[in-house]
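Sequence design from tokenized structure. All designs in this work follow the same two-part layout: the structure record, then the generated sequence. An example of the structure record is given first.
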């Protein structure tokens, strides 16, 4: 019986082998690869189709990470260090007032360095924090509060997913990728006039979460004085998965 293999990815390679012979498939670059392992034990079928597919889903974010910080400039490094310490204490007080747990506040970058610029003198410095909140509707409130507390730098907001949500939605992305693989294999089988008989191998690729990042600056997006509260609309987070699935087939 003639044994054949169809491989679908960025391109489709075809393999035809006689029973008892070692099969070699042609990849997209035309190089031969030994497929003897994938053909083992498939004597009841005529060959295999291998498909690589992706699956993407969009999910509303349920977690936000806000980057905020204070900056200082002075004649000496000691002056800058003291000013940064005072500003950082004000931000920590604001975090407490907002009810943000200490474990949700990560120390970011701390720097004190000579002032930059050709005619600059003295020293400059910055101290940043990353604040994680589980209620994305409070992002504007947090930004306004830290700006009022003296934040000089509100760099960005990263909308993402909680760990438990990542796990749940990861499975959905995999399901989507598998469905796409099934559809592509079915199309190839119809085109080649063969019948799919079942799955012989599945390989899971990367499953990625792509957060939505919103750039902002204090005095820009943030409300000050009597301005209306800051509102930031979060875009959906994308969860993507990739799969490689091999199907057995018989000739019709």
């Amino acid at each position: 019986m003639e044994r054949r293999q169809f491989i679908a990815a960025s391109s489709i390679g075809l393999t035809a082998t006689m029973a008892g012979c070692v099969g070699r498939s042609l990849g997209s670059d035309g190089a031969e690869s030994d497929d003897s392992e994938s053909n083992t034990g498939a004597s009841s079928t005529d060959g295999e189709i291998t498909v690589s597919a992706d699956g993407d889903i969009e999910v509303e974010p349920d977690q936000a990470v806000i980057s905020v910080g204070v900056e200082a400039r002075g004649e000496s490094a000691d002056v800058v260090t003291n000013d940064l310490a005072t500003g950082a204490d004000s931000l920590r007080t604001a975090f407490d007032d907002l009810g943000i747990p200490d474990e949700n506040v990560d120390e970011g970058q701390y720097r004190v360095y000579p002032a930059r610029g050709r005619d600059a003198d003295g020293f400059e410095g910055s101290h940043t924090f990353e604040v994680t909140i589980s209620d994305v509707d409070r992002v504007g409130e947090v930004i306004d509060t830290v700006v009022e507390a003296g934040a000089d730098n509100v760099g960005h907001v990263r909308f993402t997913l909680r760990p438990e949500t990542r796990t749940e939605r990861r499975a959905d992305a995999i399901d989507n990728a598998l469905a796409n693989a099934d559809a592509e294999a079915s199309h190839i089988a119809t085109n080649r006039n063969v019948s799919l008989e079942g799955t012989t191998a599945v390989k899971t690729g990367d499953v990625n979460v792509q957060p939505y990042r919103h750039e902002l600056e204090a005095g820009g997006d943030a409300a000050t004085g009597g301005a209306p509260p800051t509102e930031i609309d979060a875009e959906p987070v994308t969860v993507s998965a990739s799969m490689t699935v091999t199907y057995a087939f018989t000739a019709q």
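The chain has two domains: 2-59+165-209+239-251, 63-160. We note this feature because it recurs in several other targets discussed in the main text.
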